[in-house]
Amino acid sequence: MGITDSFLNKVEKKTNVSKQSILDLAERLKGGNLKDEKTIRGVIDELSKLTGKSVSKEQSDKIVQAVVGDKIPNDLESML
Fold first, then answer.
1. What is the per-residue pLDDT across 13-36, written as a single tens digit (0 to 9) for each?
2. Structural domain boundaries enclosing 17
3. pTM of the model as a whole
């Protein structure tokens, strides 16, 4: 799935996180293991800092379970 400029603009508008920050995070994740809990928690922490929103331990656990269990929708654009 290619990330379109339109998609990035929607994310930027909803989150107030710059397109460049999103692209930088995506580049770091490109070679990462998204089945590794430590990697996923690092991403959650990074996104929390970028957005200025806190993520509780419970929320973080649910996100980790969803990612590791492949319960994330393939069409991310439909989530916006």
1. 888 888 898 888 888 777 777 788
2. 5-72
3. 0.70
